[in-house]
Amino acid sequence: MRKSPVSRYGFINAKLRTKISTILLDEFREKLLRAASLEEVFHYLRESEFSPLSAVYHKTGDLQAVEAELFEKQIGQYQDVVKHTEGEVRDFVTAMTIKLEIENLKNLLRLWYGSRIKKRPMDHRVGYIYKEKILHAIPWDTLINADSLEKIAAALDQSPYQALLAPFLGTSVAQNGIFYLETALDRFYYRYLKEQSEKLPSGDRKIVHKIMTAEIDLQNLSWIIRYSRFYQITVENLTEVLMPGGSTFSPEQIAPLFAGAHERTGSGEMHPGISGAAGLLAQRYPGLQALADGQSGGSASSEAAYFEQLLAQIRKKEFVKIITGYPFTIGIVLVYFFLRNRESRFLTGVFNGKYYGWDSQRIREFSE
Amino acid sequence: MNLFTSKMRMLTAVVLEEDGDRVTRELLRQGVLDFVQISSLGEVDTSIIKPHEGEGLKTRLTDLRRRIEGFYLQGELPLPKAAELDVSRLSRTSVNSYEADLDRMDEKVHAGREKQMQINQEILKLQELERYLGSSPETQGSEFLLIFAGNVGRGSLNELEKRMEGMPSFLSKSSEGSAVLVALKRDQGTVSDLLEKFQWTEHPEAPERADSEEVLQELKRCIEGLKLKQERARDEMREELSGQKEKLDTLWTNLRMHELYSTIQDYFSHTQRTTLFSGWIPSDGADALEQGIRTVCGDRCVVELSEAEQFPREKVPVKVESPTVLAPFTMLVDNYATPEYGSVNPTPFVAAAYLMMFGLMFGDAGQGLVIVLIGLLGGKGMKNASGGVKKLLQLFIYCGAASVVAGILFGSYFGYPLFPPLWFDYHGVVFGHHGEGMVQSVYDILKITIFFGIGVIGLGLVLNWINLIRKRRWFELLLDKAGLLGGWFYGCGVYSAFYFVAHAYKSLPPGSFLSIAFGIPVLLLLLKGPLHHYLSHRRKGAKGFSLFNLINFFMEWIVELLEIFSGYLANTLSFMRVAGLGIAHVSLMAAFDSIASMTGNGKSGAAGIAILLAGNILVIALEGLSAGVQALRLNYYEFFSKYFTGAGVAYNPVSLKRKD
């Protein structure tokens, strides 16, 4: 017999709400943004649950080591929630954790590609790769030292990623790069998450669907804007790039909008394709109607950042609705991870922004 | 100590433009003026009076000061104290030269951090080799390694080592001149090229040497050595900054004073030849400041002092003076809000109420003494603690002392009646050992706390009446729910409740009393809305009341009646928590006593003593915290809600002691 929502979510709801209260408050985030130096940032963090990051920085002076520590902390946050859930909720949270494993794998593949294919030495960078088990038994050291993609695929036999690599074996990695391999991994994540969400009760399924759709739309829009700057957009390559499960974009709709987008170089004008994509988005999210009229132009990154911020606001609204509504749903887990991921992204942005001497406004744009 | 907030005056001065610098220094030296912009005092003719222009410089000064504070943090150096700021040493500042100085320091510190980072990257490289070398045969880490044992035919081992720096590698040199080289198979191409270049020859005993534990141990030692080097790099950076402390102090103090100097000047307004400024000052310091300004100007100025009563009350900043011994309670009041100008200083009342509540909830002389000791030892052990922590430790001492006094009154010493009580035996009463005297049962304890609550609420009402009289708010004094009418309700309510209890819960006071006690004030309350409407609209010439007004008055009347009856009842009964926590405290101690008795050798055995010890620690920690929080809650919600509006703005002069 299925558990009632209260017994399923009673404990984890209370636990996560308590943990949410420990997430960096807006005033504290402002304090970090206004800090005059990286030293001041780490000084403030000494008073927070991120004091281990501060200790790493003071010991090593190495921001990449700090980021590696932050990533490890994030993994701990996911594993902690997995530990406190049961049944189909546990399966779903576990599926969410795959995101971090995939991120780690992508980082490793980029490093491997740079070293083996582009002949750039890995030097110390292997030291920043997380090498403990996240979900699957992955021999990270074997992957790093593999001399071919075939050997990497063979070493991934205890994970679902082996099958994902299969289509890329026998092709020239040097020629094609690993971009499509990375998108294949991302696509797998969303597909797998969707599969696991099907096992949840219908109310939870609806919540997950709503949030996931917004996230995938955001991800796809971001890809399209960035991708359109450098590559010819065709139905075929969009099929490989776009994440499945979004509400708005189908390759057939998008490809014609972006014909010739990659040819613009340094123009300040926004490509009409982006306005077209924004129009499609506005049909799904009425709050974004203004986008359809076209906004100020700029670089691909600023266009992407602009749309991302708008979509993030829509997602935020959904989360506020969840957190103030009926408490015994999967929503609280989604909100918790959203806030935690946002917190990690913010900290990474602040660390790097302060290192490069950016002003607080610029850091805010890139880390919110 | 002042029972009311300090009396304030508004100082407005006009000085000659050429005296601006001297006047600013004097204002900073005295540090007593809470500035207001001249433009906020009324309409200003901007064609004559112009605001000060200097925001850009102040921002630069603040940025520079904060940059210096970053160095203090990196060097773990203490910031100069406010006492070290001396206006007479305020020297001319060249922001550009300061920036250049700081840039040079930045370079050194950055170089130190870079060094730390490079060492860390070396460590990471060697740790990868260590992981593979030290791996078990199952994990097959060694299959990623290249191990050579031999010697170079051309160049030296040191040169080879240097050429291999870019990749994870380790060269273990023996005293005979040969070496073991550990590198990674993934770097095989580069390694082979280098070995060929250096004409590397393998020794016949190479495999034995290479397999030995010795190489791994040497690698570990090398990593440890690098870690020490990393620590040294950090220490060197700190030492470098310590060596610059004097310079940093000079820069910081000068910048800080210039920043405050600029803050003062930001409040200045200017005509063509004069400077105008205005601000609030406590009455007792006004003459000294006026004299100071006159002296530095050689009497070429106009200084005007106005009384606070000429300004809207909410615009006057509030200074609350309490003795230093009451500092922890000032902190509790500040955490809540700032009292309104001219009202009662709540600190001494909070101190008395808080300590009495705490004592009643946590009445144990032994445990109280422990809390006193925690406060005293904490204060000695944390000399560098922040002001807030110090005040908290001081509060521990006071609360502990209140517990000791209450414990002596109740005859409780670590939960045992070591001495006879001076008032009543709390433990005996809780466990039904009826004694003699006025307190014989748990109900009597509840009654005491209800009486205490009535006293606290009554005091709150009286303080509110005093505040309203001082503020000349006669309407609220008469008809507000915390005014005389509310007091009437409350007094009669209390009498009726006790009458009802005294008559075995069977009869209420006579009807004639009830009609005077409640009927008249209920009718008076009904008049409150219309009267207020009439008085506030009289000047505007409003005619009569609309139907909407009448419905509104009626609804407000109903709501206010409900608020008065339910509010006062809830406020009073809320004090029963004081008895509840006191009883819980006694019960917990008795429970630990029973558990200890059940062990092998009873309470005198090791297990029994351990249980009693653990019980006392638990009770001190949990009950102590609980009593502290509940006492605060009763003060904030039951006591403050009667008289403390919290509508004041704190007095914040621009002084050398200022922290923002």
Short description:
The complex is a heterodimer of chains A (368) and B (660). Chain A has 368 residues and is mainly α.
Protein model, in words:
The complex is a heterodimer of chains A (368) and B (660). With 368 residues, chain A is mainly α. Helices cover 69% and strands 0% of the residues of chain A. In chain A, helix 4 (51-60) runs antiparallel to helix 5 (63-83), helix 5 (63-83) packs antiparallel against helix 18 and helix 17 packs antiparallel against helix 18 (331-355). Chain A is globular and about 50 Å long. Chain A starts with a helix and ends with a helix. The mean pLDDT of chain A is 84. Chain B has 660 residues and is α+β, with helices and mostly antiparallel strands. Chain B has 21 helices and twelve strands. Chain B has helices spanning 20-30, 55-74, 95-133, 157-163, 188-197, 206-211, 213-243, 245-266, 283-297, 327-336, 347-361, 365-381, 387-410, 426-430, 442-471, 474-479, 484-502, 511-537, 547-573, 576-598, 606-643; strands at 8-16, 34-36, 50-51, 145-151, 169-173, 179-184, 201-202, 269-270, 274-282, 301-307, 317-318, 649-650. In chain B, strands 1, 2, 3, 8, 9 and 10 form a six-stranded antiparallel β-sheet that branches. In chain B, helix 10 packs across helix 11. Chain B is flat, with a radius of gyration of 38 Å. The two termini of chain B are 27 Å apart. The chains are: A mainly alpha (368), B alpha+beta (660). Chain A binds chain B through residues 36-37, 39-40, 43, 58-62, 65, 115-116, 121-124, 126-128, 141, 144-145, 147, and chain B through 63, 66-67, 69-71, 73-74, 112-117, 120-125, 127-128, 131-132, 139, 141, 144, 166-168, 184-187, 190, 230, 234.
Notable characteristics:
heterodimer; A: 368 residues; mainly alpha; 69% helix; B: 660 residues; alpha+beta; 6-stranded antiparallel beta sheet; 4-stranded antiparallel beta sheet; 21 helices
